[in-house]
Design brief:
- The protein has about 70 residues and is mainly α.
- The protein is about 60% helix and about 0% strand.
- It has three helices and no strands.
- The protein has helices at about 1-15, 20-35, 45-60.
- The protein is elongated and about 50 Å long.
Length: about 70
Amino acid sequence: MLRAFVEWLQEALLLLVSSRKDVKFMVAVYVALIVAGRRTADDVPAKLQAAVLEDLAALGLDGNGEPVAEEPVA
């Protein structure tokens, strides 16, 4: 029940966010929460998920905030 409310609240906040600056801020917040181990990419609202995963990849992290294993160079 609480989880459903939190998800609803996240979606409602996203509807209030209208400018790109605000969206970038929300992406940064979710990236910080994931890096801190407080959230995972699965917790990010669908509208922001791609941008959050992109920023995490730029940091060399996966959707759980863990370092991505580098592929060996052949």
